[in-house]
Amino acid sequence: MSAAEVYAALFGGQVDPDWEAYASCREVDADLFFPEERESAGRVKAICRSCSVRDECLATAIRRGESHGIWGGMTARERGGLARSLRDDGFAVPRAARRPA
Question: Which residues bind [4Fe-4S] cluster (predicted)?
């Protein structure tokens, strides 16, 4: 998938505010999506791969600046890398507002 296709998939349309109601993870223990530092995220990412609202989830996490957990099938590090890569390619990826300490 090209950078343009990724950007369009994530930010090209209006995100349905009710997307979470359609998420594959809604019936799964939320703790699974916040694995320990060295714990594998493979099982959780498999749930995300089959999810019909994966792009909405990922876009929401990037917009919010979610710094923990698996969102849209990506870890925080992977999401940050994706956002940086898209920005480097000239796409206007929203930067999350800094949260107060």
Answer: 25, 48, 51, 57
Which candidate, 23, 19, 81, places its Cα nearest to that of 49?
A: 23
Q: Please provide residue 78's backbone torsions phi and psi, each rounded to the nearest 5 degrees.
A: -65, -40
Give me 2's structure tokens: 């090209």
Instruction: Check the annotation: does 70 bind a ligand.
Output: no
* Token pair of 15 as six digits: 């995100």
CA distances from 19 to 25, 49, 58, 66, 72 (A): 11, 16, 11, 17, 12
- 74 annotated binding-site participant: no
Say whether 12 counts as a known binding-site residue: no
Other residues' Cβ atoms within 10 Å of the Cβ of residue 97: 9
Residue 17 annotated in ligand binding: no
